[in-house]
Structures are given as structure tokens and as C-alpha cells.
Amino acid sequence: MASNMFSIECPHCGRSAVKDDYYKTDERYILCLKCGYNYTRTIKSSTANSLEYTEEEYVGYGVFILVHRDGSSKSMMLNDALTAEKLEEYKRTYMDDHVDQEKSYLVSYENGIFTILLGNPPENFHLPFKEFREKMIAKYGELEYDFMVPLG
To answer: What is d(CA 146, CA 148) in angstroms, rounded to the nearest whole number?
Structure first.
């Protein structure tokens, strides 16, 4: 499958999100590793003359980015408001000996407000999309296609 992957403005929080566009099948994925917004459009069924798609969208309540000391990582989108039980579970996971706490973080997003609950998000985390775009242009040069912003 052929796809284009690039940064876009998150439709939920206005930060930088990742869009993975499978242009031959018109399938797409949008993931915001800031607020947790996620959208999928995938083929449900197909015939010789038509395609039927299924779409799922979650506005996002934050993210839990877990980086292990061996370099592997796991990104979890919070599709629901964070409960006290889930927060305690994430705290236990974060404190595990195999987790690199310097690179892992838990951030909630509710009512337009980011709250850092564990760890420290990366440098560009809080940049609005337009500032992120300008920073990527400064880093990589002018964009060949105006809509395709590098992932960073």
C-alpha cells in the first residue's frame, strides 16, 4: 500500500497531529500524540464497482507515552476521561523498573487544557501547529508541497 504521512493541525487541540493517507484506497488515519485525538477511515467491504468505508473518531482526553529502557515504546490514546483507577494503574506502570521515566509521560486533555500528570513531554509538545510548522520549515527548508509538513 502507498501512503503519505505528514503533520497536520489537530482538529481537536490545534497542535501537531500525524496524518497517514493511503491515497490509492482513500483510507486514512489521524493521530494526535498531544491530546489523544484519533480518527480512522478504513475499507469495510468492497465490490468490483464500489468501496464501503467505516469511520471511527475519538476526541481524545490525553496520551500516555511509555518508553522502555530497551528503546521500545508504546503510545496510548486516552479515549475517555481519566478515572482515578486508571491514573493509579498508569502510575504503577510508569514506576516499573523497565520504564525510562525521563522519556515517558502522561498528559490529560480536558476542556482545552493540558495537564502533565507524569514525566516531561518533549520540547515541541506545547507548540501550536503554526509554530511547529515554522520550526520544521526552519529545520528542513521550504516545503515542496504546502500541505505536507514534516513529522519532526
So the answer is: 6
Distance, CA of 77 to CA of 12 (rounded, Å): 13
C-alpha cell at 44: 469495510
The DSSP call for residue 48 is S
Closest alpha carbon to 131 in 152, 107, 110, 113: 152
How far is the C-alpha of 147 from the C-alpha of 152, rounded, in Å? 15
Question: What does each C-alpha distance from 65 to 10, 26, 53 come to in angstroms?
Answer: 18, 29, 30
User: Which of the four pLDDT bands, split at 50, 70 and 90, describes residue 81?
Assistant: very high
Q: Alpha carbon of 126 to those of 22, 69, 86: distances in Å?
A: 28, 25, 24
Q: Is 0.85 topped by the overall pTM?
A: no
Question: Locate cell 502533565: which residue?
Answer: 116
Helix (H, G, I), strand (E, B) or coil at 96: coil
Q: Name the maximum alpha-carbon separation found in the chain.
A: 54
What are the boundaries of each domain within the chain?
Answer: 4-59
